[in-house]
């Protein structure tokens, strides 16, 4: 009998968390699943832990491969999957026992392309329940177009779209394959965002289990992923190009403003991170200048109305628009953090 759900877990150097993650799946009230562990070149004991679980439980499959990052690992899992539905879990996270039973039942009852729940952002001494600013319940294709296309790529207030975190979703595998919905393997930052937008664009229906916080997202407050990284900036530029190519020419809806707001988010995010870079004042200013003068940043402000954000954020955006690098640098060097947004940016911060 084929599994109801295929659970894909990319694994990379997570020996301290992997047991918790896998055990949370084995403890699900719904038992008709398979677990696909993609050991992505781990250098600790993660690979051995995967093999130990597979030897004890025939529902667990393991692939060992050279490190190719999370997008490629998830695509490998999609290709291996046998279940009717597909779920992604990050290997340092865990899920509540009723998650798959509730989501599977709803998906089956309504013949859904995908379904999404809420999550809890947790650290060792911190918990915050997260939800999306859209209504709960069922969305038809017309509902998706009328209610969600306006935030398919980005919300007006510079927030990521509802599908920013693929790991709170259960996807119909046939739907993904029929629409060739896979991760861009050359993008290693914010890869969830672009795929989530594509999925919502193609879905014939969707259900949001609002208020059901089934997923536990583990947040490490000591993480260095919020520091400046030129590879991230290059990835953001690549995402912008892919969004323009994928959504820029569709006749169904004009996504051009959302794509610009997405690029604005990446710009603000990167400028804010520069304050944490290990360099002197002059080099920081040079980095700020390189970002502000980039052609993609310049293009944001062509026929662009300021988004619906606080006046402080509008000031920051205007400083970028008019390339007032020194004033912006003073704000950053005084630890005002104008470009670091308190946004729904988990997918930016969960990279291996």
Overall shape: it is globular
How much of the sequence is in beta strands? 15-25%
How does the helix and strand content classify structurally? alpha/beta
* Largest sheet entry: 10 strands, mixed
Give unreliable regions as ranges: 336-344
Number of domains: 2
Distance between the termini: 34 Å
Task: Tell me how many strands there are.
Answer: 10
- Briefly, what CATH class of the largest domain? Alpha Beta
Label the CATH architecture of the largest domain.
Answer: Alpha-Beta Complex
Give the ordered list of helices and strands.
EHEHEHEEHEEEHEHHEHHHHHHH
Query: Mean pLDDT, nearest integer?
Result: 92
Helix and strand topology:
Layout: E1 5-11, H1 18-26, E2 33-40, H2 46-56, E3 60-65, H3 69-80, E4 85-88, E5 94-95, H4 99-110, E6 114-123, E7 126-130, E8 137-140, H5 141-148, E9 169-172, H6 173-178, H7 191-202, E10 205-218, H8 230-247, H9 256-273, H10 281-292, H11 295-300, H12 311-321, H13 325-333, H14 346-349
Parallel strand pairs: 1-2, 1-4, 2-3, 6-10
Antiparallel strand pairs: 4-9, 5-10, 6-7, 6-9, 8-10
Helix pairs in contact: 8-9, 10-13
Model description:
The structure is a single chain. The chain has 352 residues and is an alpha/beta fold. It folds into two domains: 5-218, Spore Coat Polysaccharide Biosynthesis Protein SpsA, Chain A; 230-349, no CATH class. Helices cover 42% and strands 18% of the residues. It has 14 helices and ten strands. The chain has helices spanning 18-26, 46-56, 69-80, 99-110, 141-148, 173-178, 191-202, 230-247, 256-273, 281-292, 295-300, 311-321, 325-333, 346-349, and strands at 5-11, 33-40, 60-65, 85-88, 94-95, 114-123, 126-130, 137-140, 169-172, 205-218. Strands 1, 2, 3, 4, 5, 6, 7, 8, 9 and 10 form a ten-stranded mixed sheet that branches. Helix 8 packs antiparallel against helix 9 and helix 10 (281-292) packs across helix 13. The protein starts with a strand and ends with a helix. Residues 336-344 have low confidence and may be disordered.
């Amino acid at each position: 009998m084929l599994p109801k759900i295929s659970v894909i877990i990319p694994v990379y150097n997570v020996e301290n968390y992997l047991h918790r993650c896998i055990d949370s799946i084995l403890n699900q009230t719904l038992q008709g699943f398979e677990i696909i562990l993609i050991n992505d070149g781990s250098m600790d004991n993660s690979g051995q832990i995967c093999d130990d679980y597979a030897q004890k439980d025939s529902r667990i499959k393991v692939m060992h491969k050279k490190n190719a990052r999370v997008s490629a690992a998830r695509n490998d899992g999609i290709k291996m999957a046998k279940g009717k539905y597909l779920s992604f879990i990050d290997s340092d996270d865990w899920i509540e026992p009723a998650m798959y039973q509730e989501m599977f039942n709803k998906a089956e009852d309504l013949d859904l392309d995908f379904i999404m729940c809420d999550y809890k952002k947790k650290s060792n001494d911190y918990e915050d329940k997260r939800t999306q600013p859209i209504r709960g319940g069922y969305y038809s294709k017309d509902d998706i177009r009328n209610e969600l296309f306006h935030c398919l790529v980005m919300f007006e207030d510079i927030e990521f779209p509802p599908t920013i975190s693929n790991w709170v979703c259960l996807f119909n595998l046939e739907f993904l394959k029929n629409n060739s919905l896979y991760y861009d393997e050359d993008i290693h930052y914010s890869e969830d965002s672009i795929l989530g937008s594509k999925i919502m664009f193609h879905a014939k229906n969707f259900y949001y289990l609002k208020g059901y916080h089934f997923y536990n997202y583990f947040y490490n407050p000591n993480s260095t992923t919020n520091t400046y990284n030129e590879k991230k900036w290059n990835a953001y530029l690549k995402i912008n190009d892919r969004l323009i190519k994928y959504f820029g020419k569709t006749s169904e809806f004009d996504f051009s403003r959302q794509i610009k707001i997405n690029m604005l988010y990446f710009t603000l995010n990167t400028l804010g991170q520069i304050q944490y870079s290990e360099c002197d004042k002059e080099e920081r200013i040079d980095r700020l200048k390189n970002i502000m003068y980039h052609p993609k940043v310049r293009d944001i402000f062509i026929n662009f109305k300021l988004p619906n954000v606080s006046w402080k954020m509008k000031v920051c955006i205007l400083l970028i628009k008019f390339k007032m690098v020194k004033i912006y640098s003073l704000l950053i060097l005084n630890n005002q953090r104008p470009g670091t947004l308190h946004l729904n940016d988990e997918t930016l911060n969960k990279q291996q």
